[in-house]
Amino acid sequence: MEETVLCGASAYTKKYYLNKDFEKLPTSIQEELRIMCVLFTAEIGGTIQLVYDQEGNLYVRTDYNENDFGYDEIGSGLKVKQMQREHSELFESLEMYYKVMILGKPFEEK
Predict the structure, then answer these.
(1) Cα 105 from Cα 2, distance rounded (Å)
(2) Phi-psi bin for 100: left (phi > 0), alpha (psi -120 to 50), beta?
(3) Boundaries of every domain in the chain
(4) CA distance 34 to 18
(5) Percentage of residues in the chain with pLDDT exceeding 90?
(6) H or E element, residue 58
């Protein structure tokens, strides 16, 4: 199994994407993800994706076009760390959801 994109946004296309496999997530969580991604691209530029690896760990991937001189590369790293800190409970819940509902692993309380 390869990586699975949960959601993402692009400053270039001005679009947000939510993987259809996650449309059953509560509306409030979908909205929080949308706001998080769209605000990132509005502030930093480039693209952002929340991606699950093979084990179900969720990580943030950012990228930008080579000729995008407005992209804030330093700000990108700082903003990702801030997102991970401020939304740590959400990220942990999304990882648990993916591991149990998608990968079929047994539920483990932390």
Answers:
(1) 17
(2) alpha
(3) 4-102
(4) 8
(5) 82
(6) strand 58-63
Does 79 score more than 70 pLDDT? yes
What pTM did the predictor assign? 0.91
Beta carbons of 12 and 47 less than 8 angstroms apart: yes
Rounded to the nearest 5°, which phi and psi values hold at 4? -125, 125
What does residue 76 show for φ and ψ, rounded to 5 degrees?
-60, -50
d(CA 30, CA 34) in angstroms, rounded, equals 6
Alpha-carbon distance of 63 to 72, in angstroms, equals 11
- What is the SS3 assignment for 20? helix
Residue with tokens 């605000």: 39
Under DSSP, the state recorded for 64 is -
Q: State the amino acid at position 33 in one-letter form.
A: L
| pLDDT tens-digit series, residues 81-94 | 999 999 999 999 99
Q: How confident is the model at residue 41 (pLDDT cuts 50, 70, 90)?
A: very high
Contact 59, 51 (CB under 8 A): yes
